[in-house]
Structures are given as structure tokens and as C-alpha cells.
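Reopening closed ticket. The problem is back. First fold of the pair:
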Amino acid sequence: GSREPAGRFTWLRTTGSTVQIRTAADLESIGNGTVATVFQAPHGPILSDVWAPELRFLDGKWYVYACGNIAPAGGDHRMFVLEATTDDPAGPYAFKGLLAPGSRAIDPTVFVRAADQAKFLAYSGYDADGQCLYLARLADPWTVAGTPVRISLPSLPWERVGAPINGGPAVLERGGSTFLGYSASASWTPDYCLGMLVNTGGDYLDPASWVKQAQPVFRR
């Protein structure tokens, strides 16, 4: 859950080479709020193309999850973690390390299972079937425990327009079920859409426990 100080809104964005956090007293002025740059590429293994930052409060600290390119020629993304050095979600942050450093991947999101407070990482990984959705257990906010499992591949026609892509996972628990929304098809086409997986059993690391909805939640 959020521990954002009362009366303040927080917004993350990337400029491509930075992660910035904006804060403001009200939502209407967030675009003009105070800006803190909490990450600047190149930094460590991350050289450029910083994408998809997310803010999470885990184990008493603030963390930023994002991804960035590690290859001088581009096209080789890895996920990484920043850890706040104070109790302020606007930073400053320290570079904590890479997540699953052996695999090309983007769009990390971290969520906590309500039943036992176990932490999980969801992301979009690249394999022979295109961009696919993976889940992994986290031993702590920056360490993947065990082998990630693939829970979705772009197998349906509406997931393959322009390119076979499942990306941008986002998780919501409600009424005893867990819903994982994701983007499908290529973002540069008008058929970019939103799909959904549903888990009613709670075994997140069993791919068979995730049921894909046959049609997009939103399209066109």
C-alpha cells in the first residue's frame, strides 16, 4: 500500500534517459509540480532508453522499478531497481541492481499477494514466440527467487497485429480473484489493445492457473 505523505500527489515519468518524480499538492497541478531526477543514464550497466518506471512501497522502503538498454547499439533492455535512501518517495534513490540480469525484458511491475504477503515480479520478456508475460517470486524487493515462469504468449490474432506482443502487465486483486491486465499487439498500430488474465486459485507460478480472456478488454 502507498505511504505517500498526506496531501501530496506523486507522478513518475521518463524522458528516455532519466526517471523523474513530480510532486504536487493537488492533482490538477501535478504537471507543473516539483521535479526530482532520481535516475540519469548512463549509469552502471544502463546506457539509454529508460522505460516504464513504477513506484512501490515494500518492506518499509520506497522502490522504483524500470528498464533500460545495456547495449551500445541499442535493443537490449534489462530491468533494474532503485532504492530510496530516505523515507521520501521523491528520493533521492540509489541504484540497487538489475533484476533477472540474464534475460532481455521490459515493463517490470511488482505486486504483493494478499493471502501471504509474498512479493511477485511480472514483466514482458522476449523469446521465440515474441514478447511474452512472465512471473517470478521475489526473495526481497531486488532479488528474483527461482526460475521465472511464462504465463502468457501472444497466441490470439488480436495479440499479433504488427508484432506478437504481450506487454505492460498491471495487477489487481479483488473479490478473491487476481486480474492481470496487459497490452497486446504493436503500440504503433491502431489495433494496440488491452487483454486480461484471471487467476482464481492463487497459485501464481502455475501457468495453467491463469485464464486468458478470449477478447480484449479495450480495443481500437
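Second fold of the pair, where the issue appears:
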Amino acid sequence: MISLSDVLKLSGIPLRNYKIQLATGKSPTPLEAYYSGAFKEWQEEQSNKNFQCDTVIGLIHLYKDQWLFAGAYKILGVKRGIKTAYLYQTELLAGQEDLIGRIVVRYKREFRASYIQGVKYGHQFEVAEIKPQKLTIQPFPGHNRVILPHHHLSTIARHEDPSWKSALSSVKGVYLIVDTTSGRMYVGSATGNS
């Protein structure tokens, strides 16, 4: 087994006084922030002084015990926030550009803490996969295979992903949106007149 901390050390990332953030949440989700290129800013907004350390490693929850490596950041300082109580200033450390969005680690979260001491627990984050390319919004999969969460659809619409836009803008049809929390459904139609 090789741990994420082993990989980062081999890449020249200093890991002395560091924390690991297990990024979860809503509005936007950390994965949505990652897809839109705003994970650094998403992570910098904190309700508590969670990053009293030199370095923070961002991991984004994918599913079950799988987490996506979103980067190792040097803590430069903290000030009062506007949207949250604290706003950290961070800087992405050099030497990991080819690893961000490619490393998936396995870690079974057995407690509520989202900010874990790296020196104590870092060895438990086992590298499960190194993807050949960075995780990105998937290209349009075909009309009969579109099932995706609302936040992914929102990200696709906001960024006007070309493969989705061209596929959906010329289609006539009926579609169904289901709120998986309440069970409410919305049936809509598309005319194909983008």
C-alpha cells in the first residue's frame, strides 16, 4: 500500500505540520467548486479557525470511502471573512500540478471531524487509483444515458460545456427532473430551438 503522504513527499511537498480537509457540503459542493476551478476559494472560507497548521491537503468526497485529491496548500494567513467567519489566504504548493484531480484515495471516515491532523492520520489515506487524466465533467454520454445530480447539471449549464450544449440545444423531446429528497417531479419539454 502506498499512502497519499508518500506520493506527496516523493513530489517534494513538505508535510510537517499539516492537516487534511475532508471536503463535503452543499451550495456549492466541493466537487462542483473543483469542476468550476474554484476549489481553492471554496476551501479558504471557514466558519472556524480550522487551518492552524502550515499546510492543508484538500480531499473531496466522491462516494463511499473514495476521496479526490484537490491539492496541497500553504497557509499564508487568516482574516475575518465576509460570507464566513474566517477567510484564509492560501497558495498552491509547486510540484503537484500533475497530481491534482488524478489521485483517488481510500479512507473510511469513522468520526465526524473534517479536519484531521496529517502527522497522526496521513498514513491511513491509501492511494486507490491514479487516473490517466484529471477528473472533469464527463462529455455528453448520449440522450438515453443522462442521469445526473442537479449540481452537476447546474455546473454544466453555467460553464456551457460544449459537448452538452451542442447535444441538447438541437433536440426536441420531453425530460423529467426528480427531486430525490422530496420525490417531487417536474416534466418539461424542449423544442430544439436554442
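Update: turned out to be a display glitch only; the data is intact. The longest helix spans residues 150-159. The mean pLDDT is 88. Please close again.
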